[in-house]
Amino acid sequence: MELPFSESYKIKMIEPLYRGTREEREQWIKDAKYNLFNLKSHQVFIDLLTDSGTGAMSDRQWAAMMQGDESYAGSESYENLEKAIQSILGFEYFMPTHQGRAAENVLFSALIKEGAYIPGNSHFDTTKGHIEFRRAHAVDCTVDVAFETETYDPFKGNVDPDKLEKFMTEHHQDVPFIIVTVTNNTAGGQPVSMGNLKAVRAIADKYKKPVLFDSARFAENAYFIKIREKGYENKTVKEIVKEMFSYADMMTMSSKKDAIVNMGGFVAMRSKELWREISVFNIMYEGFVTYGGMSGRDMNALAVGLDEGTEFDYLETRVKQIEYLGAKLKEYGIPFQTPVGGHAVFVDANKILPNVPKEEFRAQTLGIELYLEGGVRGVEIGALLADRDPITRENRYPKMELLRLAIPRRTYTNNHMDVIAAALKNVYDRRESITNGLKITWEAPIMRHFTVELEKA
Ligand code: F0G
User: Fold this and answer.
1) Helix 194-206 vs helix 161-171: angle between axes, to the nearest 10 degrees?
2) How far is the CA of 216 from the centre of ligand 1 (A)?
3) Which residues pair with 403 in a beta bridge?
4) Domain contains 128
5) Hey, what's the torsion of the CAs at 139, 221, 109, 203, to 10 degrees?
C-alpha cells in the first residue's frame, strides 16, 4: 500500500479552543455589529480571518528569539536578518519595519507623488490605501481569467502584459514604478508565473521604470512555479525565489505571512541611494534603521523564518492543506476560486447568494452565516473592502464577491478543515432561504471594512 501524504512536522505546543453554541454566537455577532473583526478570539472556534501573523513558529525560531540582541543600533539580530535577506532574496540593502503596510508607507513616502499612477496586478487594500491616501491611483492590470472563478488557470495572479503595455504607452510619464503582488491575494492567492515576471520586467525596462514586488507570499508563489511552470520542476524553491527577485528592483514584505512570524516587515532594494532616501522616513515613522519597529528577538525569528518558509517540504504541507479543503468544498458542489490559492480558499458569494441584493453585501452575509453555523470566521473580500470611490464617494462593487477562508500556517489540522467544509455545506444547502443581507450604520472614510458597523437589512 502506498503511504499517504502527511505533515512534515509534529506538534510540540498546543492552545485550547472553545467551540461555543449557536445561541451564544447569535448574541456575539449582534454585539459585534455584524463585523467579524469585532469578535473576541474566544468567540471564534476556527479562525480563518487571516493567515497574517497567525502561524505557529518552530522550535528553531523560538530558540533564535532567546538569542535576540536588543541593542538600539547595530544589533547582531539585524546582521542575522541582513544575511538572510541577502542570501535568500538577493537584495543588498534593507530596512526593517513593524509590518508590511509600514514598509509601504516608508517606501511610498519617497516614491509616490500626487497624481501618480501605479500599475500592476491587483493591489492589496493597504497598498491601494497608501497609494490613494497620497492622491495617486492604483491601476489593476490583472489577467481577465482571474475573474472567472470556475475556470482553471495555473497563473491567475498574472499581470496582463497587453493591458500594462497599453497603459504605459499613454501614462508612463506619471508612473514612478510598476508593482507585482506575489501571490495575488485579491485575486484569490493566485500565483504569478516566472514568464510573467520576465514580461513585466521587459515592459519596465522599455520605459526605464523600477519594479516593486509586494512579496508577502513570495514563497507560496515560488512553490506554484515549481509545481506548475515548465522548466522549473527540478529547481529548488530557493533557486526559484532568487530568480523571481532578480526581476525586481525593490520589495516590500509583510513578514507575517511567508516568513512565519507574528509581527514584522521590511523594504529591500538594490539601490544604496534609495536606502538613504527612505531611511529618513523609517527613522520618523518606524525606528532607527537597524530595527525599524522590530525587536532584536523578532528579527532573529524572522531570519530563521525566511529559511524555513522557503523549504519545499513545509510549502508542500501548507499548500496541500488548502487543496484538501478545496477538494471537500468541490465534493459538496460549493463554488470557489479555482484552483485554490496558496493561503486561502475564496468562496464565490455571488454564485451562492444571488438572492441577496449586491447592495446588501453578499460575501459579508455569507461570512456571518458561516460564523453562526460553525464558529468559523472568514473575511469579506467584496464591496465592503472595495470602499467608496475617493472622488465620487459612491460604493464600488467589484467583479467578485468573495468570502476568504485564510488558513494560518502550521496551526490547524485536516480535522479542522473537515469542520469548516461541513459548516459551509450546511449554509450552502439552505442558500435559497437566505434573501436578506446587511446594511451599513457607520463607516470610516477609508479602509472601512475593518471597523464598519452593520445591521440586518
Ligand atoms: N501586501 C499583501 C499582499 C498583503 O496580503 C498584506 C496583508 C499586506 C501587503 C500588508 O501587510 O498586514 O503586515 O501590514 N494582508 C493581510 C491579509 C492583512 O489578511 O491578507 P501587513
Assistant:
1) 20
2) 7
3) 347, 380
4) yes
5) -50
Ligand 1 contact via 398 beta carbon (within 6 Å) = no
**Count of domains observed in the chain:** 2
Instruction: Summarize pLDDT for 112-135 with one digit per residue, the tens.
Output: 999 999 999 999 989 999 999 999
3-state class (DSSP) for residue 406:
strand
Q: What is the C-alpha to C-alpha distance for residues 132 and 112, in angstroms, rounded to an integer?
A: 10
Domain that holds residue 322: 22-51+312-456
316 and 292 both lie in a single domain:
no
Tell me 89's DSSP state. Answer: I
CA of 184 to the centre of ligand 1 (A): 11
Mean pLDDT of 25-51: 98
pLDDT of residue 440: 97
CB distance 142 to ligand 1 below 6 Å: no
Residues 19 and 45: beta-carbon distance below 8 Å: yes
Distance of CA 36 to the CA centre of its chain: 18
Say yes or no: 44 and 168 in one domain.
no
Out of 308, 332, 361, pick the residue that ends a domain.
Answer: 308
Q: Provide the 3-class DSSP secondary structure of residue 112.
A: coil
Strands (E) across 34-162 are located at 46-47, 93-97, 117-120, 137-140
Domain closes at, from 280, 308, 336: 308
Summarize the confidence of residues 423-447 as an average pLDDT: 96
pTM score, whole prediction = 0.96
pLDDT band at 446 (very low <50, low <70, confident <90, very high): confident
B/e letters for 284-317, b = 16+ CB within 10 Å, e = fewer, are eebbbbbbbbbbbbbbbbbbbbbbbbbebebbbb
| Per-residue pLDDT reduced to its tens digit, 289-337 | 999 999 999 999 999 999 999 999 999 999 999 999 999 999 999 999 9
The CATH number covering residue 221 comes to 3.40.640.10
CB 212 within 8 A of CB 179: yes
The response to whether residue 215 sits with its C-beta less than 6 Å from ligand 1 reads no
| Pick from 316, 319, 424: nearest CA to 376 | 424
Which residue, among 265, 261, 345, has the nearest Cα to 309 in the 3D structure?
Answer: 261
Judgement on whether residues 339 and 435 belong to the same structural domain of the protein: yes
For residues 401-437, b (16+ Cβ closer than 10 Å) or e, as one string?
bbbbbbbbbbbbeeebbebbbebbbebbeebeebeeb
Cα angle for residues 411, 262, 188 (degrees, 5° grid): 65
Ligand 1 atom nearest to CA at 181: 3
